[in-house]
Amino acid sequence: MSLIVQKFGGSSVANAERIFNVADIVTGTYKQGNDVVVVVSAQGDTTDDLIEKAKEINPDASKREMDMLLTAGEQMSASLLAMAIEKLGCPVVSLLGWQAGFLTSSAYGTARIKRVVPDRIKKELDKKNIVVVTGFQGVNRYNDMTTLGRGGSDTSAVAIAAVMHADLCQIFTDVDGVYTADPRKVPGAKKLKTISYNEMLELATLGAQVLNNRSVEMAMKYNIELEVLSSLTREPGTIVKEANKMEKMLISGVAKDEDVARISIIGVPDRPGLAFKIFSKLSAKKINVDIILQSIGHNGTKDISFTVGKSNLKDAIDTLTPYIEVLGASSIVHDENVAKVSIVGAGMESHPGVAAEMFEALFEANINIRMISTSEIKISVLIDRADADRAVTAIHNKFFTPDQL
Amino acid sequence: MSLIVQKFGGSSVANAERIFNVADIVTGTYKQGNDVVVVVSAQGDTTDDLIEKAKEINPDASKREMDMLLTAGEQMSASLLAMAIEKLGCPVVSLLGWQAGFLTSSAYGTARIKRVVPDRIKKELDKKNIVVVTGFQGVNRYNDMTTLGRGGSDTSAVAIAAVMHADLCQIFTDVDGVYTADPRKVPGAKKLKTISYNEMLELATLGAQVLNNRSVEMAMKYNIELEVLSSLTREPGTIVKEANKMEKMLISGVAKDEDVARISIIGVPDRPGLAFKIFSKLSAKKINVDIILQSIGHNGTKDISFTVGKSNLKDAIDTLTPYIEVLGASSIVHDENVAKVSIVGAGMESHPGVAAEMFEALFEANINIRMISTSEIKISVLIDRADADRAVTAIHNKFFTPDQL
Fold first, then answer.
1. What's the pTM value of the predicted model, to 2 decimals?
2. What ipTM is given for this predicted complex?
3. Mutate to test the interface with A, among B18, B64, B80 (most CBs of A within 10 A)
């Protein structure tokens, strides 16, 4: 008998029919003799609908009241799923975040799980109940409702799996696994049987919206085996686990991220400390900077370019513009029509030729590279957004031939 | 500075415009220097919509999961109202039943408030916050969500008013006060300035759906002054308070109740204990019996008639039918086409002529009386349902002439 945590996203419980599909998966797992904890998101567009309703009343509503409103979403889906499980004849109980012991920080809207006290969950499992828990939510030290931010239900599921020492944490989503590239865009994309936590993290960061990043970090930290799979196909998905448990693949995937903008500060004097000043200003505003490139300029000046998320572009420009003169730089420019394309793979550490192959693929496709960034298991290039899909396909075809998988 | 509890029903917060109307009333009260606790129901048809959603999935869902589902309704309306109050520039915090300290029995769907521990409410009022509390809900000793049954938000409001020693508890509803008869049916119906708890209780029991009965009982027990008023007209409503604080009116109202059915057991032998046996069987099934009439029959038998709520009719017939033979009675018959019309008034105790006047009004309108029941402040008659509206008007005209109010 195993303890299995199963998480279902909003599209998996969007209507009565899909709720029964989920109830069928859950009770099937239970009837095989397993203890089952189910983590559920709000139904379909519920969260967006509630946000819309709030905006109609007060676009500047406090985050505390927003969280009070939004947590009702999972409350409804959790109780409806429990009713469907009752209908299928299995004992079940639904629990809200606070009942399930999710203690979080006080940052309404983006709270972090500080601790899970699973006493109630344990008690219900001891009674042989299936336990349905509302994802995405918890309670802070004031006993106020908090939400974990978008994708937070994944984190809820992994947190329960970690604290309960679950044997497996299954993340049911609307894709059936992790692919070597976006299967809707790249015809030859293949589903991976396994992927390491680190590779998954890089892919998530790069815009492959399969798993929430924090949930993968947490799974890695507590060594929880994750499975990403679809609630509709009922086929094995992709297992995310420790790298040393698997054979290292050269490349595990190609990903594209269009939520990126490039900012360049032109003509920065070539003096020490100026780069620090620029990035500390951004850091103070909590603006994350990704690729950074410093080029040799003319007459003892240099150009500093970097990328930020699109939503931070305006803020970053507004923050830096007043300092351009102070820095002695000549101007600040930006470009939103860019995209980041990356390859990820635990195997590339020991294969120095990977970068060259990637650049060759782009050259052959006549795609110009604007910036390059590398890490031990990732190589990213910044290119024109118009070229992004072609770039992904070109790189994917370079690394993935049918006999390689 | 006073502490005022204001309760708003579902129609008062049915949409964004109405929510702002409520926010305006609340902030107006607050700006006059009062501490304000607001109790709010779910928006418009939310509760019915949720019940519909549950039925689609499982018509026999457990009451525990139903309560988990339904309590989301007030959570949404409370947070939305808080956002509207924020928009109007006043400090506010919304609290769920469990956060506000509503400890209830475990009877899901019809839980009773056992205790209100208002520590959090007090703390928020000390911070000069307006406090919005979800009505209709609480938490039981298992820390599970419970609901108080229909009309439970009134009870929530009075319970807070009682435990906080509020100066006034205002129940905002879609009528603007308590009337001498249903104003939609009886043209001469007048709004009462005041009414005693006991009279209000009798009227509520009789189907004047203005205030939930349990809330009036609780207000009487803790001597909380209630005001029934409309959130739309903004005019003074009807004050419900202790009888000795007001001049006793002869009659305070005429009410009609069509949710009633008559059952007669014909030919019961005239032996002691048989009536007891009949009514103890009904009591065991928790079927409330209202008017009871025992008539002299023929040949040492009698007929026992009584009324029950329509929803209990089938159950009552099913319960008693097997015993008809055992009792030695000849048959059991029933009639659903009846209505109960009553007059209520604290003044009638000392005016023995009231009953006669009521019967005279019915005689003049050529309406046949089937059964009669009286208490110290109430006289009820059972008549054909087709005559009910005419009866109310006839009786109302008899007691209420323009100069009497």
1. 0.81
2. 0.79
3. B80
